[in-house]
Amino acid sequence: MATLTDAEAAARLVDAKVLVELGWMIEAELEVAEVLDERPGDLTALSLFAKIKHIRGELSQAIACWAQLHARSPHNETALMHLGSLLHLAQDPERGAGEFLALGQYQLLRKPRGQLELEEAFALFHERKPAEARARCAELAARYLGKDLQMHKLAVLASAWIAEMTGDLVGAAELLEQLGLQRGYELDLDRLLGLARIYERIGGDDRLRAGVKILRHLDTELDRRGVEKISLHGRLAALYGRLGDPEQAARYRRQYVDGLRRRMHRPTRAEVVTVAARRYLPLSELRTLAPLPSELAADATPRQRALADVLAGRDDAARAVLAAGKEPLDRKYVADLAAVDEAVPLYLAAHEADPGDVRIAGWLLDHHDRTPTPAIAARFARPEAAQAARSQLEHAIQVEPRRPAPWRQLAVLHAITGDSHAAARCRDRAVALADADRARVAPIGRVLAAGVYHFVGKAKGLIHEVWVHREPAAPGKGGNLPVDAILGNLTDEMKLGVRNTFIAVREYARTHFPHRTADLADHSYSYKLPKEDEPSGGLSAGLPSALAFLSVFLQRPVPQTVASSGTVVTEAHDVLSIGRIGDAEYKVKAAFHRNLETLLLPLANRSELEQSLVAPPELAQDLVRYVARFDQALRLVWGDDVFVDAD
Description:
Blueprint: H1 6-22, H2 25-38, H3 43-55, H4 59-72, H5 78-91, E1 100-102, E2 108-110, H6 113-126, H7 130-144, H8 149-165, H9 169-180, H10 189-202, H11 205-224, H12 230-242, H13 246-263, H14 269-276, H15 283-286, H16 302-311, H17 315-323, H18 328-337, H19 340-353, H20 358-370, H21 374-381, H22 383-399, H23 404-416, H24 420-441, E3 446-455, E4 458-472, E5 486-487, H25 492-512, E6 523-528, H26 542-554, E7 562-564, E8 567-572, E9 575-579, H27 584-593, E10 598-602, H28 606-610, H29 617-620, E11 624-627, H30 630-638
Parallel strand pairs: 3-7, 5-6, 7-10, 10-11
Antiparallel strand pairs: 1-2, 3-4, 4-6, 8-9
């Protein structure tokens, strides 16, 4: 029996969203998992869970969540997604064509007859026989008319889509208009969304106004059902812009950007202070957040307004309000605002009032580690306080064993209570984990790459990793990337591109960094693209691959707050250009969804992104940096002095 009310579940998810923004991924995942345990059909929780998995690099689980979201979302253009998957199956006869669909090594499923027939039509399209493909779709539509509503609709939509893909936009519109004259299809979501899309492509004021009418109707209808489809707002903004109505265009653009932030689970200022007003979030952590949109509600509490003042840099105003508060949470924030020498008694008082807060105990133990303080030692020398803190820290270690802070704090606690052996053991673990944590945050040879996953006919941006390693080589055998050292599920084209990039960056490094590459030929190199269960192709991973190779050549770490995408073009031994890529707008969304600080993209993609409906400029302006040459990318990753720094 469920124990979470709707309001409690919603509050948990807002908490988790703020925790994700702070980077507290384990705590956020636990919050979301508890909601999903009781409410497995909660799409918001599932979407936030997918974001957490994306950020943590667990891409298979993220994609599985996205698949569930697509299947269960009440407003997706499901028919077009279905047709897209059939088109893909028809394009790859070895994997998809035939009467049976493989579900596993020893399990086959017979395809429905209608699916086989539509695959035949798409096979004709792939054979460059669009007229025959449309005729086949028309035959299927006539056969299923009055017998199978879904198959009749799919056949008509398939014919219209083939017409659209071959440039017959008017013919595609006529097919969808005629379908709307049949009973049961007048308000069909797939038909209306397809018709609006085609009207947008045809253009002309009459067609554009018709597209606006359709999209506004759908927006109203979905809003009535309590469903938000934010892409409608982006399309309406573009249509009103083309119709010369800047006021309406700006209105829908604001709605689209706000909706996109919600869909990406980026919190507003009001959400952050609401969460911080009911659970302790250290102000030092809150101050690291990027500027947040929206203002507080008119009925915001004094504590919420004080926390908003902190985010705005008005500490004195916040301190006056919080000092008047009587609850332990107010005392914790007052301690956060105090100078270090004043903070110790305030944190001790806060810990006395709420001994269950591991973060307050952790602050006191860390301070005692840096500056031995008799009052702190006396506090944790008390058996009940020591036992409570030990239990809290051991629980924190169980939840997140790779985090160095609780091990370090536990070492201090053991030292205070006289257990020197346990203190040394915990201290050694903390030091080792801190070293590993620094390598994880800025590793050598591991670079984030922006890519696109094509899910049942729909593009989905994601951030994945590129790995490069080196090993000592025998004399005269180093300085190369062997073919069998390019690992992962890569197409032949991509493998060739990786080898070309390696050679180009090797010569570039020897030219620009001779003082750092004297040992380059003493090693052999390997390249790995994770996520082997899906094939990877194309050349857009050229820039992240080049950064990974150079990182290993120079033994210089790459920040994990930066992702990139771009082709590498060798102009000369010392000049590498960064070329245009496809699906740039989806890669911008992926970086925003992944909470990254910077995305490097080719300068050649700038104009299209400035006009994008998928990733509006408001999304890209603080995130994307454009580069035309590899030199520019290096300066953005490692600083302006990268070519003169001798270290």
